[in-house]
Design a protein that fits this description.
By secondary structure, the chain is of the alpha+beta class. Helices cover 41% and strands 12% of the residues. The chain contains four helices and four strands. The strands form two sheets. The protein has a two-stranded antiparallel ribbon. Strands 3-4 form a two-stranded antiparallel sheet. Helix 3 packs antiparallel against helix 4. The longest helix is centred in the last third of the chain and has 20 residues.
């Protein structure tokens, strides 16, 4: 556990040191959308707080639309990205284009650590969906401006 903590710390230190290069989703293209009962990928409710959850379902067509919106990233370059859910599926995010963006793969791995923490807390009932979504937005703000960034809102 100690080596894992050190690895996370060093990764965060590295990214904070180079925050100018850290990518974040365009809030006009990817404002973040929560799953609802009307969502075609809705699978049910989860957690003590009864959060709507969607199945993971990102089609090639959806990736093409998102990649086009973010500068026409060619399919041959998709291996360098994770088509990431701004608001994580495990926290009740949707598969909507408005919740997806092409996150550089190395940065996506760092965000995955945050998502595990969020979803573990939600499952334990110690974090609400609103708190989870705020934590994601605050994380991006901190990573892109470690000296007092602002939310993506």
């Amino acid at each position: 556990m100690k080596s894992f903590t050190v690895a996370i710390f060093l990764s965060l230190f590295f990214l904070i040191s180079f925050a100018e290069a850290f990518q974040q989703p365009n809030p006009k293209l990817t404002p973040g959308v929560a799953c609802t009962e009307q969502d075609p990928d809705f699978k049910g409710f989860d957690y003590p707080s009864h959060v709507a959850r969607c199945n993971r379902n990102i089609s090639t067509l959806e990736k093409q639309r998102v990649a086009a919106n973010y500068g026409n990233i060619p399919a041959s370059e998709w291996k360098n990205y994770e088509f990431d859910h701004l608001l994580p599926l495990c926290a009740g995010g949707s598969n909507s284009d408005q919740n997806l963006w092409p996150q550089p793969i190395d940065e996506a791995h760092l965000k995955d650590t945050l998502e595990v923490q969020i979803c573990t807390a939600m499952k334990a009932g110690t974090m609400t969906q609103d708190e989870a979504f705020k934590k994601v937005r605050d994380w991006f703000a901190e990573m892109t401006n470690p000296k007092g960034g602002t939310s993506l809102d």
